[in-house]
Amino acid sequence: MAVVFISPKKRQRAFFVIITLGFLLFIGFISLGIFFAKPKAVSPSVVFNKSKINIDMSIFDSQRFRNLHDSPVMGFQYNYRALNRSKIVETGFISAESVDEAKKTLEGMGLTVTFLEEVKLGRDNPFVPYYTVVAAPVVPPVTPAAASSTTP
């Protein structure tokens, strides 16, 4: 029978401690070698390169550049309610640069404006969901026994 002075668990723990310490020492020596190494000298011609970008400013004198047009002004969205020629109420949305232009456009369509307001973009409360699930009320089923008891 053999005499064992160190239990297998203690031997296993000692093995892992030795391996871990060896790994940490290895990483420490590598990092010290990297962090304390002196940088190599670099010639100034490599550091301060002249940029290789050439900008052709003559494009501003070309005919294509002169023929460019400004983009149109982005209009606002308006919600309207108006009466048509038959005195029937019509509602909808219209895009225009101003309230006056929106009124002129609607009047040009033959409508008499009764209500016109700018539609606000976004939402007042961003934490409210866009939709809500509405459950129908639960109605208990009518059984023949319950139907006969309610009838006189």
Task: Write a concise synopsis of the structure shown.
It contains 5 helices and 3 strands, in the order αααββαβα.
Task: Provide a descriptive summary of the structure in words.
It contains five helices and three strands. The termini are far apart. The protein has helices at residues 8-35, 44-47, 63-66, 99-108, 144-150; strands at residues 76-83, 89-96, 112-118. Among the domains are: 8-35; 76-118. The protein is α+β, with helices and mostly antiparallel strands and 152 residues long. 35% of the residues lie in helices and 15% in strands.
Stretches where pLDDT is under 50 for at least 5 consecutive residues are none
Shape verdict = flat
Estimate the strand proportion: 15-25%
Please identify the structural class as seen in this structure: alpha+beta
Arithmetic mean pLDDT = 82
Element-level helix/strand string: HHHEEHEH
First-residue to last-residue Cα separation: 100 Å
Helix fraction by DSSP (H/I, runs of at least 4): 25-40%
Give the oligomer, counting copies of the same chain as homo and different chains as hetero. single chain
What's the tally of helices? 5
Give the beta-strand count.
3
> Biggest β-sheet, characterized?
3 strands, antiparallel
Side by side, the strands of the main sheet go: 2-1-3
Radius of gyration, CA atoms, in whole angstroms: 41 Å
